[in-house]
């Protein structure tokens, strides 16, 4: 970017035979744009390039001093190994960021500040105080420290803060609940990662309410150690995500405007008979519940607007006794309003071997329109497809890790394929309702090993309208001549004359 025209560049223009004075004004239109527009343009550049523009002129130096969005996570160290180490250590100790903030006057507010730093707790406190002085609205902190790291209290009562994301390695501690509840009146997004609660688990019992977070709309919590019980009742909350909170035993969600809920890798299996869940969120649209042990007591209700649900419970055959099946049923029954269902691959394998578990889903999801399944073995899907006989859309995502070692010679492959075709044909009676309702089928990661299920759906899908096959890695690399495979599939007979077959 050239803000000022040098004498040499002007001479080159004058010597250009196509140069016309009428078409040249000599004005620097970019430099004369308002600060807000220039700030928006600079926002597209990494911060190192923004700093470099400050040497162009006094005007551009002022732009750097007033630039409102400081993202220091985009700094790329030099390529030389030695200078890379020196640059990395010098920058990541946080001193550079602190000096930059200290040079700004109180009229140069910081809208957003993001950084990754290795620093002491006292150094972090100083940096945060400068950010608060500059009325920071969005703060994204990722800190590595060997100190005992306590949550910076100057953030809590900061009246301008809208977004706070904090991640510390190894972890950090929250202040007492009475202090936490005294602030955050303007916060809209909160993300906490690697929080160590110790004996302070009760800190979060009644913290996430309208009294403490009246404006909160997004809450993300990851790796919160010793978190046993969590209650969330913020009235304006729209998005909640909990991840790797392994010690969680009780979860209560009572936010009336919640739209998206993601809970993964929570609830330790050793506490299966002491755990409970209560969810009452009438506006919930999307639910992801994966890698969680089944909870003994469940009250999932009023999910009347639930559109898509993803379910993946960590269970074994031993867990699915009478009491375990009752626990699964009480949880899944709350999801019966879902229009689209996605099942985790591990959970699919369990379902394929447990008829009572299949029956639970069959009885609860008879109105399902869309079903998505991910698996490494297509054959195990036959039992699961009985769950939702009236779906219109079926999406199968095949993982290909098993295919490289499968069927090493052509003879064994041909025999196996013949057996698989006979197996699918034996399922026609049980899958009859599905074959009379299925209109759209999509298979991702498809290869020649999955040709039997493709043939079955084409030959028996009575109302099939669209069938899309997304070729897997083996086919895309030219493995076993994919064009011949396509030609073979195109030659299969089709029960529906309206079906359109496509390859991607």
Automatic annotation (TrEMBL):
Ranges for domain F-box: 27-75
Region of interest: Disordered: 1-25
Gene3D superfamilies given in the database record: Ribonuclease Inhibitor
Domain of life: Eukaryota
SMART domains documented for this protein: FBOX
Protein name as it appears in the record: F-box domain-containing protein
């Amino acid at each position: 970017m050239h803000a000022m025209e040098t004498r040499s560049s002007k001479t080159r223009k004058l010597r250009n035979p196509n140069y016309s004075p009428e078409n040249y004004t000599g004005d620097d239109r970019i430099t004369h744009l308002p600060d807000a527009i220039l700030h928006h343009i600079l926002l597209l550049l990494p911060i190192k390039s923004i700093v470099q523009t400050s040497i162009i002129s006094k005007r551009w130096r002022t732009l750097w001093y007033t630039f409102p969005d400081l993202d220091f996570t985009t700094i790329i160290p030099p390529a030389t190994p030695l200078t890379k180490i020196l640059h990395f250590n010098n920058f990541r100790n946080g001193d550079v960021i602190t000096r930059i903030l200290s040079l700004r006057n109180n009229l140069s507010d910081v809208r957003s500040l993001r950084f990754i730093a290795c620093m002491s707790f006292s150094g972090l406190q100083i940096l945060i105080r400068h950010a608060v002085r500059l009325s920071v609205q969005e703060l994204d902190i990722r800190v590595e420290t060997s100190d005992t790291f306590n949550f910076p209290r100057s953030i809590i009562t900061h009246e301008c803060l809208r977004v706070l994301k904090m991640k510390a390695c190894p972890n950090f501690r929250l202040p007492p609940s009475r202090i936490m509840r005294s602030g955050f009146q303007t916060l809209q997004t909160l993300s906490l990662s690697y929080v160590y609660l110790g004996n302070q688990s009760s800190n979060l019992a009644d913290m996430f309410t309208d009294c403490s977070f009246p404006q909160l709309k997004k809450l993300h919590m990851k790796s919160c150690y010793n978190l046993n019980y969590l209650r969330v009742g913020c009235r304006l909350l729209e998005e909640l995500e909990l991840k790797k909170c392994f010690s969680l035993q009780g979860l209560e969600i009572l936010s009336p405007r919640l739209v998206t809920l993601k809970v993964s890798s929570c609830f330790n299996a050793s506490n299966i008979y002491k755990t409970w869940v209560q969810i009452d969120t009438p506006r919930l649209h999307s639910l992801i519940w994966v890698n969680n042990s089944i909870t003994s007591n469940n009250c999932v209700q009023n999910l009347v607007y639930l559109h898509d649900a993803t379910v993946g419970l960590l269970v074994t055959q031993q867990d699915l006794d009478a009491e375990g099946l009752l626990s699964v049923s009480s949880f899944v029954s709350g999801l019966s309003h879902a229009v689209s269902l996605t099942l985790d691959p591990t959970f699919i394998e369990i379902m394929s071997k447990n008829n009572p578990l299949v029956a639970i889903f069959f009885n609860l999801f008879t109105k399902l329109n869309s079903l998505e399944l991910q698996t490494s073995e297509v054959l195990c899907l036959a039992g699961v497809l009985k769950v939702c006989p009236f779906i219109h859309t079926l999406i199968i995502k095949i993982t290909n890790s098993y295919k490289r070692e499968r069927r090493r010679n052509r003879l064994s492959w041909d025999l196996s394929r013949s057996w698989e075709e006979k197996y699918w044909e034996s399922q026609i009676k049980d899958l009859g309702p599905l074959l009379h309702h299925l209109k759209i089928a999509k298979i991702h990661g498809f290869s020649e090993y999955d040709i039997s299920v493709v043939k079955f759906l084409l030959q028996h899908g009575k109302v099939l309208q669209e069938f899309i096959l997304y070729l897997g890695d083996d086919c895309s690399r030219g493995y076993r001549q994919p064009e011949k495979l396509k030609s073979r599939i195109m030659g299969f007979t089709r029960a529906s004359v309206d079906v359109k077959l496509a390859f991607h």
